[in-house]
Each structure stands twice: as structure tokens, then as C-alpha cells.
Amino acid sequence: MNRHAQTVVLLLTGGALLHAGSTDLYLRYVKAGLQPLLIGAGVVLMAAAVATLWYERRATRSRQEDGAPAPEPSESEGAPDPDRHAHREPRVAWLLVLPLLALVLVAPPAAGSYTAMRTGSALQEQPWGYPKLPADGPLKLSVADYAGRAVYDKGRALAGRQIKVAGFLALDGHGAPYLVRMALNCCAADAQPVKIGLTGELPPVLQPDSWIEVTGTYTPKRTKDPVNGTAVPYFSVASTRPVKAPQDPYDEAWNG
């Protein structure tokens, strides 16, 4: 890999990062708060590519003005010359092109039901308290908020209230349905599910990974996640309706 190849790889990688950071594509990889850093990394890589090309051309022009012969392609193609400096990297550096191609050509889907049912629930440790809920009207809660209040607050603020929660469906090995959101600490690689078991009036056909909004009430029923033993609360469903997947498929509210 010579300098020109390095420049092309840097330029394409920086451009791919800028494209991902300026569209919703970056949400497939990292949390929303990292968008400025992703765009900044793209700018730095493109600047490094331009600087590399400029310095290489300046060095070539300087050699031409001095009448010095151009450097040979590589030491493997002729006798080594200790007086010249070969600006080449090992051929294994071409492997850096593989993640670039994956970034440009393949946009991975957000982690879904397959990952959720094979990963332990990520319900946070018991917090000091929860924000006060509206005194009347239906409550619209996130999966993590409902799960936390149901487990650690014993549903005190939820009992007797109409509640709406949205997420995607997942089925365990026995076909039991769960409403899930994947929670992020940093990036998609560390995504973990927050799960709510569903009971009550459910559709006869449940399609994993489909996004729905369930309306119903709190129930004290709970179980343990078979993967890591974390408590999984239940939700008594009165009605369901399909909803569009959110722009950001990951839930970051659980960790602030």
C-alpha cells in the first residue's frame, strides 16, 4: 500500500463517516449524542488524506526540481537501497478496506428480537426515585420507565392508570410475547434489551420485530429473565396498534 492508496482509503473512510453522521445512518452504530464526534472524525480523516496527498506531491516536485531519480516501486522488486526511503506499508494494510466497504455497502439493521431474547435484560439498578407522573389522563411511558417503576417502585404510581408503551415484539422459545427496546451505553455493540412481558388481549398473530403500541394497565405479575435472572415485569394489554419504527431505534433514556 503506497501513499496514494493510503490517501484514497483515508478519503473514502472520512467521506463515509461524514455521510453516516449527516444522515440517520449513524444511529445504527452509535448513540445520538456521539454525532458531533463522528462528523469531526470524518473531517479529520479527510483533512489527513488531503495533507498526505499534498506532502507527497510536494516531495515529488522537489525531487524533480533537484533532478533526483524517482524512487523505485518497492524493495521486493529490486536490490534494497539503504539511501532511499520507501513510503510503503505492509500489504495486510489493505484489510482496512473491508470495514470501509461494509460501512458503504451494508447498512446493518438495528438489533432486534433475535438479539433481545439471547441477551439478559438490562434493567438498571434501583434509582433514588422517579419523576412525578401527571395526576390524570393516560400515561405514555417508555419500556425502560415502565419496567423500572413496575419492578422497583412496585407499580405504586402506575396502579389504576391507563398506560401506553411502544416497542418491538419478541417471542421466547415457548412463544411468550415480550415488548422490548434495546438500550445503549455507547454504541450498537453494547446494546442490551429492556423487556416487558405481555398478557391480556393480544392479537392472534404476533410477528417478531414488528413495532406496536400497547394500551393497558399495570399488573404485579413478573418473572425472571432466563438469561441473567433479572426481574421482568408484565403489562396487562387491553388493545394494540401497529406503529412505525422510531427514527432512533435505540432507547437512551435509561442511562440519561
TrEMBL record:
<dbReference type="InterPro" id="IPR015402">
    <property type="entry name" value="DUF1980"/>
</dbReference>
<feature type="transmembrane region" description="Helical">
    <location>
        <begin position="92"/>
        <end position="111"/>
    </location>
</feature>
<keyword id="KW-0472">Membrane</keyword>
<feature type="transmembrane region" description="Helical">
    <location>
        <begin position="36"/>
        <end position="55"/>
    </location>
</feature>
<dbReference type="InterPro" id="IPR048447">
    <property type="entry name" value="DUF1980_C"/>
</dbReference>
<feature type="domain" description="DUF1980">
    <location>
        <begin position="150"/>
        <end position="250"/>
    </location>
</feature>
<feature type="region of interest" description="Disordered">
    <location>
        <begin position="61"/>
        <end position="85"/>
    </location>
</feature>
<protein>
    <submittedName>
        <fullName>TIGR03943 family protein</fullName>
    </submittedName>
</protein>
<keyword id="KW-0812">Transmembrane</keyword>
<dbReference type="Pfam" id="PF21537">
    <property type="entry name" value="DUF1980_C"/>
</dbReference>
<keyword id="KW-1133">Transmembrane helix</keyword>
